[in-house]
Task: structure prediction
Amino acid sequence: MDTFFIWLESSTLSLWVRGESGWVMAFPIIIVFHALGMGFLVGVAVTINGRILGLAPKIPLTLLKNFIPVAVLAFVVNAISGILLLIGYPTKALTNPVFYIKLLCIALALWNLNWFNKAVLTNTAYDQGELPIRLKQLAVASTLLWACAIVAGRLLAYTYTKIMTF
Result:
């Protein structure tokens, strides 16, 4: 595995991300895009979760389906920026168990958002009245998963044991 890490860390793209190729703004700009993508993605998810949990009950749940394209675009921005960050410091991330916790939380939260999109946001029966407790439990779980993903992402800066292989 060290051979792979050394190869990736010495690649032109990795050097560019870390600012070792002459332009030092790549990493800060990537971080900004990652934060913005996260804000929009989590914002959409938490908005849907909040509505399911009883906030703004007069807003039809089906109306919130209009925000899904924003979440998809934000996810694409996060995926691209996250891959670039990973390429910049592959050893730091891939040898850290917290990184895998972050990925698991994101995967589960995205699965939940996708399920809400297909099963809840398309069903006008959920637009009014009391929602089933199961939906509320999933909304709480989704909010907690996003919070855990954010915390795990922040902890990556402090919990690594090895930043680079070479």
